[in-house]
Amino acid sequence: MTSIALAAFDMAGTTLDEHGDVYRALQRSVESTGTAVSAEDLQTWMGADKVEAIRNLLRLGGHAGDEATVSECFDLFRRLLRDFYAANPPTPLPGVEEALRALRASGVRVALTTGFSTDVAGLLLDGLGWSTGEGGNLDAVVCSDEVAAGRPYPYMIHRAMERTGVQDVRSVLVAGDTIVDVEAGVASGAGIVLGVHTGKLGPEDFARTAATASLPSVAEVPAHLGLDAEVAVAR
């Protein structure tokens, strides 16, 4: 049995494939103000709370980033994302649902943390058929609008610990596909912090961070913990 009690995973690009629509919606919402968005800056702020991402992308592009403009951009971001998801629904990344089942069958609680607001995350989870509670495949979901600040702050991870009854942060595994996912995991004090290569970043990118390691996918996490996925699911 693994010593890990909780696995906290990012959503978009980590556990589900949303076809890059978050990137498109975020970029278009900021560019609607006439502000240029560089690919490097966009990548830097992926995974963060989306209001904070918009605010910083505006300022990096030379805009004052006043609160009225930030609010307008965020409203546009949510509208665009809903339209994109309606046209091309997100799907679980290969092997992820099996990995979630294997972890939970082995006694590891599973939580999702996300830079999405609660309404956007709910839309995603409903479309996937993922849920918490009896009969669900998750133990907790924490959104950035439920804590004082999103990534790279560690608060969503700590809130996931609260909701799943996990006391020791050293027994937490954190995994995500962006730099801020890793930074939040490190800041939380998690025992294992993993980068995964299912987003825009690869091993060389995570090698420059304080991640414990990086893996091709969340699907590899049970094996990384020494779990036999087939045996665990069969229990």
From TrEMBL:
GO BP term, example: DNA repair
GO cellular component, one term: cytosol
Keyword vocabulary terms for this entry: Hydrolase
One Pfam short name: Hydrolase
SUPFAM superfamilies: HAD-like
Molecular function terms from GO: phosphoglycolate phosphatase activity
The protein's name in its UniProt record: Phosphonatase-like hydrolase
